[in-house]
Automatic annotation (TrEMBL):
<dbReference type="InterPro" id="IPR008928">
    <property type="entry name" value="6-hairpin_glycosidase_sf"/>
</dbReference>
<dbReference type="InterPro" id="IPR035396">
    <property type="entry name" value="Bac_rhamnosid6H"/>
</dbReference>
<protein>
    <submittedName>
        <fullName>Cellobiose phosphorylase</fullName>
    </submittedName>
</protein>
<dbReference type="Pfam" id="PF21104">
    <property type="entry name" value="Glyco_hydro_78_N"/>
</dbReference>
<dbReference type="InterPro" id="IPR012341">
    <property type="entry name" value="6hp_glycosidase-like_sf"/>
</dbReference>
<dbReference type="InterPro" id="IPR049164">
    <property type="entry name" value="Glyco_hydro_78_N"/>
</dbReference>
<feature type="domain" description="Glycosyl hydrolase family 78 alpha-rhamnosidase N-terminal">
    <location>
        <begin position="48"/>
        <end position="171"/>
    </location>
</feature>
<feature type="domain" description="Alpha-L-rhamnosidase six-hairpin glycosidase">
    <location>
        <begin position="184"/>
        <end position="511"/>
    </location>
</feature>
<dbReference type="Pfam" id="PF17389">
    <property type="entry name" value="Bac_rhamnosid6H"/>
</dbReference>
């Protein structure tokens, strides 16, 4: 279990002007009415099989213990209403129903009573409802993320049955796929399609991490969503809105939170992660590169630079970052992962972005100072974190060897060109126990391979990793996928895992990036 941070005393600072700008940038959601495409059955392994014909649904008389699973054929995010009536004698008792929504079919066979994870069971999309009077048009108040809906009749009475006449979902998203060109390589079209659906369904009033859970704006997720969005939906205003929210809602010392809430009011959470705070700088840099919006850059430079000042406090006199036993830095959900080397590299990575931004803003002197600091941090990484014998970066007092440390050192430019490529190949061969479990970390691995020119490895890995989720029938990509243990969950139970998780949408970005490079360099990645 990750150490949970609760800080009721935390003082916050609000930049009202920034929050006002963010509020004005809120877009209107696009709505679509979607009806189920079929009826299925789900076996004990969570596999789906064709069920009765959909046109027979209004003729089914459901009594105590009966159930029907509706399949909406693709992942939906929206508001569901059910038209129900009774059949038989007059309704002499409430209809008592259980409605269960699943992003994947397996969620329907997971028993919520047995849930024993450390995050709220409230995330399980299941409702028990009493209906006193039939017929009714039941409008469920929550927004759900799902492909499957199971209607289970807990009870009616001996004298009447329930009939489901119609079920409709008012699906919502800030963007539509219309006008988004597919990737050129048809063999990659399924990877691309599922990535796009993942991002589309996470784009609501802000970039949510997952529409099932946490339905919240997280900075680490935002960074990857924004990158993919520039290549696909091109909704620059939503990125701008999220940047102003993070920049305008901070701790009183200026620290940018790992995530924030938009309801019932805009408020920054009391979770702070070393890497996520720093990624505000990278996200701002990426946004500027994509939009050339200098005004926003000027506005948000101060909160961005403040993250460097705060991060600096964690370094010792040798320019080495010091970690702690708390949930201080994210990197990946891999259990037991030591974050020191990754954090050192992420600091250098974000210094690179800060240097570029400082130059754009004409802050030459500051850019020079940051460049110098970067040199010290790189030398320190090579002196204290590089293992000459093993030819890898190590992390923490126990000199842990992980993928994450190598990947981030490459992305930061601590090892470059051929040396970097050799390092990635070396760690892939060693395949240390400290692997990668989130699509978020796996994204960075692929990004590092591309940076080193290892395009074939990058494409093969995408096929293996994201393709692995496709082989399980994914309509959207997941929060966590460990090919060696597909059931894995960071929360003690996969019942609360999110199966449409924004940080996994990046094949749509990576594939387009590869295509662009191919056009420029004429190198094939197949
Ligand atoms: C998960 C969230 C989010 C991620 C954090 C660190 O709980 O869903 O995606 O950014 O962890």
């Amino acid at each position: 279990m990750a150490a949970v941070s609760i800080d009721l005393e935390m003082k916050r600072f609000t930049n009202e002007a920034f929050v006002e700008k963010a509020k004005k940038l809120e877009g209107k959601l696009i709505e679509n009415l979607v009806k189920p495409a079929g009826i299925v059955t789900v076996d004990e392994k969570g596999k789906i099989h064709p069920g009765a014909k959909l046109e027979d649904l209004p003729g089914m008389l459901l009594k105590k213990g009966d159930s029907v699973v509706l399949d909406f054929e693709d992942h939906q995010v929206g508001y569901v209403s059910l038209k129900l009536k009774s059949a038989g004698s007059p309704q002499d008792a409430p209809a008592y129903l259980r409605l269960k929504f699943g992003e994947i079919a397996k969620e329907l066979i997971e028993k919520s009573e047995e849930y024993n994870g450390w995050i709220s069971r409230g995330w399980i999309q299941e409702e028990y409802i009493h209906i006193d009077v039939l017929p009714v048009c039941l409008k469920l108040p929550r927004r759900y993320a799902f492909r499957f809906l199971e209607i289970y009749v807990v009870d009616t009475s001996l004298k009447y049955q329930v009939v489901v006449e119609e079920v409709v979902c008012r699906a919502v998203s800030a963007v539509s796929k219309e006008g988004v060109a597919c990737v050129a390589d048809p063999r990659m079209s399924q990877l691309d399609k599922v990535s796009l659906r993942t991002l589309q369904n996470c784009m609501q009033s802000v970039f949510e991490d997952g529409p099932k859970r946490d339905r919240r704006l997280w900075l680490g997720d935002l960074r990857l969503q924004a990158l993919t969005n520039y290549e696909t939906f091109k909704n620059y205003d939503m990125v701008k809105r999220c940047l102003y929210l993070f920049g305008g809602l901070t701790r009183d010392d200026g620290a940018i939170g790992a995530c924030l809430f938009t309801e019932p009011e805009y408020i920054v959470d009391d979770t702070f992660l070393f890497d996520y705070s720093l990624f505000f700088i990278s996200t701002l840099k990426d946004y500027y590169e994509a939009s050339k919006d200098l005004e926003t850059l000027k506005d948000l430079w101060q909160p961005a630079y403040r993250q460097i000042e705060l991060a600096r406090e964690r370094f010792n006199d040798n320019y080495i970052i010091e970690g702690s036993d708390t949930f201080w830095c994210f990197v990946d959900w891999k259990k037991g992962l030591d974050k020191q080397a990754s954090a050192q590299a992420i600091y250098i990575y974000t210094l690179n972005a800060a240097i570029e931004l400082a130059k754009i803003l004409g802050k030459e002197e500051l850019a020079k100072q940051l460049q110098e600091e970067k040199g010290y941090c790189i030398s320190a990484a090579l002196k204290y974190l590089w293992d000459e014998k093993l030819h890898v970066f190590i992390s923490g007092a126990k000199r842990q060897v992980s993928y994450a440390s190598q990947v981030w050192m490459v992305l930061a430019g601590v090892k470059k060109d051929q040396e970097a490529g050799a390092l990635l190949k070396h760690i892939t061969e060693i395949n240390p126990d400290m692997g990668m479990v989130t699509p978020y970390m796996n994204h960075h691995y692929v990004e590092a391979l591309i940076l080193c020119g290892e395009k074939k490895m990058a494409v093969d890995y995408m096929k293996y990793y994201w393709g692995g989720m496709l082989s399980y029938g994914a309509d959207t990509f997941w929060e966590l996928y460990n090919p060696e243990n597909p059931e894995e969950s960071p929360y003690g139970s996969s019942a609360v895992n999110s199966y449409c998780h924004a940080w996994s949408c990046t094949p749509a970005y990576l594939l387009r990036k590869l295509e662009k490079e191919e056009k420029t360099n004429g190198i094939s990645c197949n």
